[in-house]
Amino acid sequence: MRRILSVLILLASSSVQADLKLTVFDCGQLIFSDVSAFGLSNKETAVRELFVPCYLIQHDEHLMVWDAGLPLADVGQTSGNSRYEKSFLDQLADINIEPSDIDLVAFSHMHYDHVGAANAFTDSTLLIQETEAVAAFEHPEDNPVFRAELYNALRNTNRRSLNGDYDVFGDGSVRIISAPGHTPGHQVLYLDLSNYGPLILSGDLYHFEASRTLRRVPGFNTNVEETLNSMDKIEELLVTSGATFWIEHSKQLAESLNLAPAFYD
């Protein structure tokens, strides 16, 4: 309980409620014939498709991107294990937003299916755990799911290096929660939406509903113990905060969501 207390204190909202909106974008699908790499047997889940989302957060006059989808080169491809119909950048343009309009960009982690459009956001300030920055920019060869060419344009841009949980706007409404294990600096996002209520975006803490139910760790995670500790931390936060939990890759969840140009507030 002690470890979550500081998080809860920081989650307290300010007396003036920010105008906070969340927009969800379809940034592709991943298709698998075998899910054993995710720590599940093929008999433990019938799911073989994962949704790949991108998110836009509007906090008063500020814009923030959370996760940036599959590689832009995947748009329109019909072979392989990915499907991506319309790029994140084109979907942003549909609502009159250009990459240069984005103030802040953050990724749950730097795997290729979360940073596909990252290089477009060189005018934005990158919010990244220091451990993730070292892994992604200094030693990408150590993680086969990192593709440095997708995010290397951010290497020398404005950056806020994080060392744990972080209150993005200083009012508790948008908070990055450190949850390492999947990668060295994996993180999830807490949002305190006025109408929808508190919400946590999972990153890749779990990929499937069964991953959460059965408490399974993918074989490609960087640290099993850290992953399990992060699961405990976020599950405890869900209970104490009363937040709704979105498993980002859940196709079942995606089919129930209102996608862009709709938004949650």
Give helix and strand order, one letter per element, not per position.
HEEEEHEEHEEEEEHHEH
Oligomerization: single chain
- From the 3D structure, determine the CATH topology: Metallo-beta-lactamase, Chain A
Spatial order of the strands forming the largest sheet: 4-1-2-3-5-6-7
Provide the β-strand percentage band. Answer: 15-25%
Cα gyration radius (Å): 17 Å
- Give the second-level CATH assignment, the architecture: 4-Layer Sandwich
Q: How many strand elements?
A: 12
**How would you classify the helix and strand content by structural class?**
alpha/beta
User: Can you tell me the CATH superfamily?
Assistant: Ribonuclease Z/Hydroxyacylglutathione hydrolase-like
The overall number of domains is 1
Our count of helices gives 6
Low-confidence stretches: none
Helix proportion: 10-25%
Summarize the main sheet: 7 strands, mixed
CATH class: Alpha Beta
Overall pLDDT: 94
Global geometry: globular
Signal peptide: 1-18
Keywords: Hydrolase, Metal-binding, Signal, Zinc
GO molecular function: hydrolase activity; metal ion binding
Protein name: N-acyl homoserine lactonase family protein
